[in-house]
User: Which sequence fits this backbone?
């Protein structure tokens, strides 16, 4: 009797133990593979913590004389924050194209990390010996230019090793680096700013850049020996069977063998995919809604406490956000669902904005910061959804992830100007803009979900018509 893959013949009884044995062998091999990969990937979390600390230390420095020492006025501080993202916008796509071409993230990402750590250290020196605003702008621009390699590169790296149903949890653990950095970065900053004032003739905020940048360089050197390359270019720490399984898992997850494309072909495919642009524009709005992150110490200072207490109070909201992000992402992977998980988190964030703009009561305003911080759980689900919604080949995925982050960085540029000093201490107008941005991003995600539903239905109809096996489906 004729049959296809959808309706295989019944196996003989004596074949059943063999099939069970093969399945059991694969499960054991897959568990060992994932344990090895997870151990090596874990350093990405530490790198991202340092990435965010080096990116956001100007916000903590602002509480101890950064603006006064550099004689900043008007929107100059906001410009110093936003110029970093100009470097991001310029570099993210070329960086991921180059990473896909060389296939050696274990070297490329740590080298970039060493450079940005050095630039962070130089910020403390340069702004003292170069005209103040100009020196700060230059160092921040080049910091963003080099830091741009990390996040899209890390997303691309984990998407090469993990299936789509495994991505949300791993993306969450990576992105939790930013949440942890906000929590413990504040602890580090409070210790440095409280104890290093005047040491060797430098202000405490300058020591913030010296110490944190030096720590980044040390970790980068260690990362060279820990980070994995891609499945097809990793050697020495996987058995041949594990390496073959790593590549086969990706082929099975996407329903076809990965076609190798030149980076320029990946660029063309990404630029002509409407889904990529839609996700990128949605990310602009989400980044605007999350712009409170760069001003978190400033928002906390509106509670009226000293600099050290203000920084210590920044810790609990981000610890809470980390716990929520891990829980939401795990449940999102378990249920293979994205939209409602990200929507729930952003809706709670909107509640936080409404609470903050409605009162100056210290307790209520502090609780509102918890609600705002946990919005990052939705942001993480969005990143996992975007990564899993970009089709093969790998060259396209590399560019698409970078393109989404590049265009999305425009939201960071805009968000830098959402919190001007004339709007303090209530920042009601700022919170209103964040609410509008969140609502717009969620609306775009709902429309995106409807589009994916239609694409899945079309693919299912096509498979029924031609009698083929079940193939690729977009997660909703």
Assistant:
């Amino acid at each position: 009797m004729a049959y296809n893959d959808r309706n295989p013949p019944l196996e003989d009884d004596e074949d059943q133990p063999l099939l069970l044995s093969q399945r059991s062998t694969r499960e054991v091999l897959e568990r060992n593979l994932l344990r090895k990969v997870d151990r090596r990937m874990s350093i990405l979390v530490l790198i991202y913590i340092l990435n965010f600390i080096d990116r956001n230390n100007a916000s903590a420095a602002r509480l101890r004389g950064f603006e006064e020492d550099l004689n900043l006025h008007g929107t100059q501080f906001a410009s110093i924050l936003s110029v970093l993202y100009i470097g991001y916008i310029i570099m993210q796509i070329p960086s991921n194209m180059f990473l896909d071409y060389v296939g050696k993230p274990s070297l490329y990402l740590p080298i970039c990390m060493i450079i940005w750590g050095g630039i962070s250290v130089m910020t403390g020196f340069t702004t003292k010996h170069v005209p103040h605003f100009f020196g700060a702008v230059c160092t921040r621009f080049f910091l963003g230019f080099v830091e741009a390699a990390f996040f899209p590169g890390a997303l691309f790296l984990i998407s090469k090793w993990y299936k789509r149903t495994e991505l949300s949890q791993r993306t969450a653990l990576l992105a939790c680096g930013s949440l942890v950095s906000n929590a413990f970065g504040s602890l580090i900053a409070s210790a440095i700013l409280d104890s290093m004032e005047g040491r060797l003739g430098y202000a405490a905020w300058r020591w913030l850049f010296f110490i944190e940048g030096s720590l980044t360089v040390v970790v980068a050197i260690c990362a060279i020996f820990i980070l994995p390359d891609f499945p097809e270019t990793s050697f020495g720490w996987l058995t041949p069977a594990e390496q073959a399984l790593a590549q086969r898992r990706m082929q099975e997850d996407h329903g076809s063998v990965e076609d190798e494309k030149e980076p320029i072909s990946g660029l063309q495919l990404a630029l002509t995919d409407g889904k990529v642009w839609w996700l990128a524009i949605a990310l602009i709005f989400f980044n605007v809604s999350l712009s409170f992150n760069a001003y978190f110490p400033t928002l906390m200072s509106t509670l009226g406490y000293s600099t050290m207490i203000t920084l210590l109070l920044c810790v609990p909201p981000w610890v809470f956000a980390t716990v929520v992000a891990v829980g939401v992402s795990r449940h999102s992977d378990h249920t293979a669902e994205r939209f409602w998980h990200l929507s729930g988190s952003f809706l709670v964030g909107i509640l936080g904005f409404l609470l903050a703009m409605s009162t100056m009561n210290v307790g209520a305003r502090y609780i509102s910061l918890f609600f705002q911080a946990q919005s990052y759980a939705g942001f993480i689900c969005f990143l996992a959804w975007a990564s899993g919604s970009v089709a093969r080949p790998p060259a396209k995925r590399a560019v698409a992830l970078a393109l989404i982050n590049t265009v999305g960085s425009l939201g960071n540029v805009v968000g830098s100007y959402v919190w001007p000093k004339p709007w303090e201490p209530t920042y009601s107008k700022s919170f209103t803009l964040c609410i509008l941005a969140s609502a717009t991003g969620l609306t775009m995600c709902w429309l995106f979900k409807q589009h994916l539903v239609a694409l899945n239905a079309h693919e299912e109809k096509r498979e029924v018509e031609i009698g083929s096996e079940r193939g690729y489906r977009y997660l909703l």
Remarks:
- Residues 1-13 have pLDDT under 50 and may be disordered.
- The chain is about 75% helix and 0% strand.
- The longest helix spans residues 428-466.
